[in-house]
Amino acid sequence: MCRVLKIHCSVIYNRLKQPLSARAIENERLLKLIREFYIASGATYGSPWIYRDLSEAGETCSVHRVAKIMRRSRLRVQIGYQRRYIKNGKPSRIAYNIWERNLAPASPNTAWVSDITYVRTYEGFLYLATVIDLYSLRVVGWSMDKNIDKHLVINALLMAVY
C-alpha cells in the first residue's frame, strides 16, 4: 500500500501512534475557549472580538486562525432581526374619496380613519392597526399581530363596530 501511495511506511505508523496532529489538538483546545467567549457574548461576537478576548486571556493566535476555527465549527454572529418576506396579493380596489379633505365631521361615528404602524421588538416586528373616530379623535378599535395582512385591519374594524 505504501508503494501504491508513494509514501514512507513511517508516516502510517506515526499516524497510528498519534492520529491528530499537534495543530489539530491545539485547534480543539482553542475551540473550547472560543465557544466559551462566543456563548458569553450571547452569540454577538465575531472573530475580531473573540480574538481580543483570547488575547486578554493570554492566548497567542491570529485573528484569521480564530475566524477559520469559527467557520469550521459553524459559529456565526447573530446580527439584527430576520426579515420576513410577505407574498403580494391581488391589488385592492381604491375607494372613492367622499370626504374630500373635510376632516371635521359634525357628529360622532360618522367618519373613521385607519392606520397601520409597526413596533420593533426583540422577536421581530409587531404590527398595530388602529381605527380612530374623526369627531372625538379617539381610538375606537385596534388590533395587533405579527403578520401584516387584511385580517389585522378587519379585526381592528370589528372592534370599532362592536
What does this structure look like?
The protein has 162 residues and is of the alpha+beta class. It has 2 domains: 2-72, no CATH class; 84-162, no CATH class. The chain has 6 helices and 3 strands, in the order H-H-H-H-H-E-E-E-H. It has helices spanning 2-5, 9-17, 22-40, 47-56, 63-72, 150-161; strands at residues 112-121, 124-133, 138-145. It has a 3-stranded antiparallel sheet. A hairpin with a 4-residue loop joins strand 2 (124-133) and strand 3 (138-145). Helix 3 crosses helix 4 (47-56) and helix 4 (47-56) crosses helix 5. The protein is elongated, with a radius of gyration of 31 Å. The N and C termini lie far apart (85 Å).
Work out the helicity level. 25-40%
Strand-and-helix sequence, N→C? HHHHHEEEH
Structural class: alpha+beta
Instruction: Please tell me what the overall shape is.
Output: elongated
How large is the radius of gyration?
Answer: 31 Å
The count of strands amounts to 3
Q: Could you say how many structural domains there are in total?
A: 2
Strand order of the biggest β-sheet: 1-2-3
* DSSP summary: helix tally: 6
Distance between the termini: 85 Å
Most strands sheet: 3 strands, antiparallel
Averaging pLDDT over every residue, what do you get? 87
Report low-confidence residues grouped into runs of 5 or more. none
Strand content: 15-25%
